[in-house]
Structures are given as C-alpha cells and as structure tokens.
C-alpha cells in the first residue's frame, strides 16, 4: 500500500454511518458543524492532547498516532491503555450515551476495530477487545474485536478507496434518524435527492403535460 495515499480511520466510521456522508467529506472536502459535531469536538478536546501517564498500573497514552501499512490506514487513537505485557487496549471517546441505537453504535465499533487492527500491526500483539467511552453517561461499552468486525473494516476500506478512485459521490440513502443528526443534511438534501430517484417523480419531471 506504499503507492497509495493512506485513508484516515474516520473515513471508515463515516462510510459505515452513510456512504454519501463519507463522499461529501472525503471526496468533495465538504464539512459543516452542527450541535452534534460540536459536542464531539468538545469531548475530543479533552483527550486530544498527547501525553503519557500511569493509571492503576497501566501505561495510558493519549492522542496516539496509529497506522496499518497493509490496509493503508492512518489515524489517531484517543486513548490506549497498555497492559503490563504491552498489550494495547484502545478506548475511543464519543459524545452522548452508550445506549445509542444499535445500527448507529455499530458505526463506532468499526472505527474502534480499525484502531485495534492498527495497534496489532504496530505492536505485534493481539487486541481482542476495546471500549467506547460515552461522555454523557460516563460509561464504557466493551466491544469485542470479532472476525466479522475485522472483515467489515477491510471491506469498508476497500469500498472507500473504490469511491475515491471513481470520483463519484454515492447515491443518497434516505434514513430519517441518521439524516436528522447529520451536519451535512442541508448540502445532501436527502428528501429531494430521494424524490429525484423515485420513478414516478422522474416521469413527471419530463412530462410536458404534468
């Protein structure tokens, strides 16, 4: 993967959340803030300062750069707790509560799994689990790094690369819950785009008698 630009880990989370959102951010370089993104930035501001400390017998590193040469991934882990034998345990910080809808929480799992795979490649030690720390509830949710999750990381990376190589923005997939929280909703116009792809609407657009 030395001949291609590395993908940021955030692209995998964006792709899992919505391919069109990923395309707007990483293909068209478009981004807007809303309340949710601002809350996320505030949470990360607390842990994005690089540093090392000892906590309950663990070495804890914050804002640790991570990469995976074989998959062509690069990014930063919010917090990595290293056990006595050097085994890393990634902890990704998110705003909100750990009681997110399962499909939305799964997007965070993909990002965490990508961090775990990077740490494995860097340290040579197996990472069997990590955790997502949700700022609102101040609770962790442990995430096993399963075979299925690892496969999702690899497939998502390949799909994002294919999208970037094609230079084509993915079609809109209308999902009221996800669209409502997306800061790019005004740029994307999901309802309008979905209507344009509706055959009945398209027929009326080009019908002079409509």
Could you please describe the fold and organization of this structure?
- By secondary structure, the chain is α/β, with parallel strands linked by helices.
- It has a single domain, classed as Lambda Exonuclease, Chain A.
- 45% of the residues lie in helices and 22% in strands.
- The chain is built from nine helices and seven strands.
- It has helices at residues 9-17, 19-26, 35-45, 102-123, 147-166, 176-181, 185-188, 190-196, 199-205, and strands at 7-8, 51-55, 58-68, 73-82, 88-94, 129-134, 139-144.
- Strands 1, 2, 3, 4, 5, 6 and 7 form a seven-stranded mixed beta sheet that branches.
- Helix 1 packs antiparallel against helix 4 (102-123).
- The longest helix has 22 residues, at 102-123.
- The radius of gyration is 19 Å and the shape is globular.
- It starts with 6 loop residues before the first strand and ends in a 5-residue tail after the last helix.
- The relative contact order is 0.17.
């Amino acid at each position: 993967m030395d001949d291609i630009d590395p993908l940021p880990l955030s692209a995998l989370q964006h792709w899992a959340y919505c391919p069109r959102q990923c395309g707007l951010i990483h293909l068209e370089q478009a981004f807007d803030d809303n309340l949710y993104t601002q809350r996320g930035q505030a949470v990360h501001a607390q842990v994005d300062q690089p540093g090392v400390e000892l906590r309950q017998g663990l070495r804890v590193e914050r804002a640790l750069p991570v990469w995976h040469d074989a998959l062509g991934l690069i990014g930063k882990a919010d917090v990595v707790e290293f056990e006595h034998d050097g085994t890393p345990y990634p902890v990704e910080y998110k705003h909100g509560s750990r009681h997110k809808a399962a499909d939305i929480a799964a997007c965070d799992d993909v990002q965490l799994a990508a961090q775990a795979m990077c740490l494995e490649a860097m340290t040579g030690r197996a990472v069997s689990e990590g955790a997502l720390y949700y700022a609102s509830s101040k609770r962790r949710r442990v995430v096993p790094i399963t075979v299925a999750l690892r496969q999702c990381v690899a497939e998502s990376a390949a799909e994002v690369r294919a999208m970037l190589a094609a230079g084509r923005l993915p079609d809109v997939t209308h999902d009221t819950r996800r669209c409502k929280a997306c800061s790019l909703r005004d740029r994307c116009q999901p309802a309008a785009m979905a209507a344009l792809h509706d055959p009945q609407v398209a027929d009326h657009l080009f019908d002079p008698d409509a």
